[in-house]
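STRUCTURE:
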């Protein structure tokens, strides 16, 4: 399952994040791929707001992770950009994140080989003043989820 969408402005990225919040099953792992400034954190912000998070949604650039206790599950927003060695992933205890948690991982390549396999890979790219997004499922659960949440991409 794959879908592509043009995101003309920041509001569109937030709205797409909100769309991804629909029917979000516990335990889903997302890899968020794209250059600095591609809109990964913006997309997570839209998703979290749609799930009822009202406070400021911070980028975990310096903390590596922000955790959210949501009604149905915990959600972990990772940003591994500043990780220098994949072993930092182990040292921080991130391997023990519950399989019931939803994980959204920016810069997954930084911990290649240590992360849970993705259910959904989201690729964002910069197109002049706007963005393109492509979602691809990487597991049966991810495919079923994108079937419903990505329509009508
Ligand atoms: P990343 O986490 O990928 O480094 P951010 O989410 O921090 O990127 O976004 C970087 C910038 O891109 C922000 O200023 C945001 O407002 C802007 N932005 C997000 N989506 C779009 C879009 N669809 N079109 C134009 N600008 C966008
Ligand atoms: Mg970011």
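SEQUENCE:
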């Amino acid at each position: 399952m794959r879908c592509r969408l043009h995101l003309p402005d920041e509001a569109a990225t937030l709205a797409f994040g909100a769309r991804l919040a629909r029917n979000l099953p516990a335990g889903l792992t997302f890899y968020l791929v794209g250059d600095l400034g591609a809109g990964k954190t913006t997309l997570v912000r839209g998703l979290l707001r749609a799930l009822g998070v009202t406070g400021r949604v911070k980028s975990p650039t310096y903390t590596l992770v922000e955790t959210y206790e949501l009604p149905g599950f915990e959600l972990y927003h990772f940003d591994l950009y500043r990780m220098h060695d994949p072993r930092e992933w182990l040292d921080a205890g991130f391997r023990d994140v519950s399989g019931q948690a939803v994980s959204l991982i920016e810069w997954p390549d930084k911990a290649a080989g240590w992360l849970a396999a993705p259910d959904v890979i989201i690729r964002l790219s910069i197109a002049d003043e706007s963005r393109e997004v492509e979602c691809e499922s990487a597991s049966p659960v991810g495919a079923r989820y994108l079937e419903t949440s990505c329509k009508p991409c």
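REMARK: Residues 40-41, 59, 79, 106 surround magnesium ion (ligand 2) (CB under 6 Å).
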